[in-house]
Write a structure and sequence with these properties.
This protein is of the alpha/beta class. About 30% of the residues lie in helices and about 25% in strands.
């Protein structure tokens, strides 16, 4: 066994009812390296990491640390052995300070009392040693998301983690915050920390990783390095076919105004400072307006108001020359609005319902799906089968529960339902969040097809690459306001990133 290997899995196999999640997975992490783990949704990445972190136990195979087999039965075991995990959704207490979050569960005491003064000193030294300056007394809910992520990493380092698992760590960061995270990752590896980097973003893998392992359908299909690969090769390894990574589109041909938002003001979802403050904009038929911004700057509230899920304080919303009624989603659907929601489980699907029933959630009472108060099951089934074929939904049948499908296929059900009927406006909020490159390629193509048919499209995304690929114009939101509107063809990532962080305004 080579002395430079920090962690190794040998023939890890994990079965769930009806699913072989991991099949004889072999994975090697060297000391002081950044090892990227790639794969489609459902490829088995999360299962493998959950086994390494003690959240699952493997059915077969073994894990070796520093060349020795170990039994990791719980996260407590993993932490004790020097393994830390930073989840995509931060595990922080918003009303606690930085130092309180870092020491939570591993408190510094003097006798029977909590010694916050000593803890503060330890956290300050730790953050200074690793080049991650944070104010120990800052309250979590009052600091930027990039700083919150530093706190999560410091929390693992405080527990003396030698191996860090970072699960989609850049999902909600600005480009500048991503660069800062990469700097921190490099500093960590220089000090001997080994990092497993899970992401869907191929550009980031090529920019930061030392080694790359690709999984598909529960198995490792190959390993490579950034020097030996590129985005197209990695995407093909992940999906098993050639993937078109750039959105193919011609110039927009804007026509009449379809969506007209006038002086819209909304309260914050959390009661904080960032709601929506006197926003006005228009979208024309045949164009895509992209809204860029770090999550939590009013985008959720804006979309919920437009789609009838939230009341407004002042202002108005007009669709095709008619003012929309507030908080009446059914009327908006009937007026020609399609909505691909941010949270597909909460607002997009009824997971316990069949795929077929989910394809008519907003049309079930209309002909041909109903005759008076009676449902027309034959028409619903025919519609579902056509949608499954047209939108490439991978499902055993139209009658299985929507909750049994992968995230990508659940999203295709929503996209199919919303785009398979005559619409004037598509509102797509984070349309590809958490999806793999194959599903992203498909959904992007559907959105551009709608634009080219003369539909107005609003795309809200925290992914700058997605905004730059899809949008014809880009509006940037910061603290509940649109701080700039740019032509997509001349906008740069750097300029957008500064606007998203509030560092520049136009």
């Amino acid at each position: 066994m080579s002395e430079d290997i920090a962690l190794q899995t040998r023939n890890i196999t994990k079965r769930f009812p009806g699913v072989l999640a991991n099949n004889k997975v072999n994975f090697t992490l060297k000391k002081g390296e950044i090892h990227a783990l790639l794969g489609e949704n459902g490829a088995g990445k999360s299962t493998l990491m959950n086994i390494i972190y003690g959240l699952y136990s493997q059915d077969e195979g073994e894990i070796l640390l520093d060349g020795k087999p170990v039994a990791i039965r719980s996260p407590h075991d993993a932490i004790r052995m020097g393994i830390g995990m930073v989840h995509q959704h931060f595990m922080l207490v918003p009303v606690f300070t930085v130092v309180e979050n870092i020491i939570l569960g591993d408190e510094v005491t003097r006798g029977t009392s909590l010694d916050l003064s000593l803890a503060r000193q330890q956290v300050s030294k730790l953050s200074s040693d690793y080049g991650m300056e944070v104010d120990p007394d800052s309250v979590i809910e009052q600091i930027p998301v990039g700083v919150q992520q530093r706190v999560e990493i410091l929390k693992a380092l405080y527990r003396q983690a030698r191996i860090l698992v970072l699960d989609e760590p850049t999902a909600v960061l600005t480009p500048q915050e991503v660069e800062d995270l990469f700097r921190v990752m490099r500093q960590l590896t220089e000090r001997g920390v080994s990092i497993i980097f899970i992401t869907h973003k191929l550009k980031e893998v090529l920019a930061i990783a030392d080694s790359i392992t690709v999984m598909r359908r529960g198995e490792v299909v190959g390993s490579t390095t950034p020097a030996e690969s590129d985005e197209h090769k990695l995407a093909a390894m992940m999906v098993g076919r050639e993937v078109i990574l750039s959105v193919e589109k011609g110039p927009a041909k804007p026509a009449e105004v379809v969506l007209d938002v006038r002086g819209l003001t909304l309260a914050s979802e959390t009661g904080g400072a960032h709601g929506v403050k006197d926003i006005s904009f228009q979208i024309r038929a045949g164009e895509v307006l992209g809204i860029a911004g770090v999550q939590g700057n009013g985008q959720t509230e804006l979309v919920e108001a437009i789609t009838g899920l939230r009341g407004i304080q002042s202002g108005s919303i007009w669709l095709a020359g008619k003012e929309l009624p507030a908080q009446n989603p059914r009327k908006l659907v009937e007026a020609g609005m399609a909505h691909i929601p941010e949270d597909r489980h909460k607002h997009g699907l009824v997971l316990a319902y069949s795929v077929a029933d989910n394809t008519v959630l907003n049309m079930y009472y209309q002909a041909p799906f109903a005759r008076g108060v009676q449902r027309n099951f034959k028409a619903i089934d025919q519609h579902a089968e056509k949608l499954i074929g047209d939108f490439d939904v991978r499902t055993p049948s139209a009658y299985v529960g929507a909750g049994t499908l992968s995230g990508g296929n659940q999203q295709k059900v929503i996209v199919g339902r919303e785009l398979s009927r005559p619409v004037k406006l598509v509102v797509a909020n984070q349309p590809t969040r958490g999806l793999d490159v194959g599903s992203i390629e498909y959904i992007h193509r559907q959105i551009i097809e709608m634009r080219d048919r003369g539909v107005a499209v609003l795309v809200v995304s925290a992914e700058l690459d997605e905004i730059l690929s899809l949008a014809d114009r880009i509006a940037v939101m910061y603290q509940g306001q649109i701080v700039a509107t740019l032509e997509a063809k001349t906008a740069t990532r750097e300029e957008l990133g500064l606007l998203m962080a509030g560092a520049a305004q136009r």
